[in-house]
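Good morning C.,

I know you're traveling, so I'll keep this short. The sequence:
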Amino acid sequence: AGIIQRLEESYKNIRDVSRPLKVSVVFSMYKEKARLLPASADNPNGEDALRIKIRQIKEVLDRNPNIAWEIIAVDNGTPDGASGKLVEELWAHIRQEYKDKGEHLDENQVVVLYISPEEAKRLQSRKGAAVTKGLRYAVNLTPADMPSEHTPADIAIFTDADISTDLRQIGLLVGPIEKGESGCAIGSRWSRGAAVGGVSFLAQLSSIIYNRLVRIILPPIGKIYDTQRGFKGFSREALEAILPYTSDPGFSFDTELLLMCRLAGIGIEEVPIVWIGSEKESKLSLRKDVQPMV
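The tokens, ready to paste straight into the viewer:
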């Protein structure tokens, strides 16, 4: 019942968009071969993540001809750029699959950006530097990297490399931003109406403790129940206001983004989502990463 209700609201928000709107979806990758490829005997944790993300985005956003979309995948220092190269290879196959069914996907609807291993080490990038690079690209804040024909996004959303968040819920973030109710909308696992599965007790406990600490240490954040879920959307204007001042390259970068929104007077709407954990290929270490986040 939870996912049906969330999807109904998401689809309604998308149907209600009455003006041309571009949505960019950003995710970062580090050694994500297992998740990107389908499950098999040799790849038991495979998720076929890129194909599923594309299918989910198309299912919801293609319902409204006013909406254009792109995916921006950022390789965060994988040796030899292997994750990014795999996305490029998979994207070519996926486009051909849709072409064989009589459906055209533009080559530029999936963009791959790269942070070299050397740059990732210099930046101490765990995730934040990659996601913010993708967000900057989405709204044309990195002119040196921009192809001249790139149209900036009206709304940029970041998600995780896995498929824990069903992207058919994307309208839950698009709605409040497109209607002008907030400049930022975030998916929450802990708000009333949310549903969570596949998450260990330790992971749930660490998330709850972190969020409570954030509210104590950073009072301007206010009453946000889930600062860490990788499903957040921003208007172009919000990103133009906050990205010049962000600097966190690690896993707490999204807490920094929320703090910058508060300090800039940008409204934040927290919306309940359905989220199914995908921890087997997670690169987050509770021992190594949570303490630096705090």
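Safe travels,
E.
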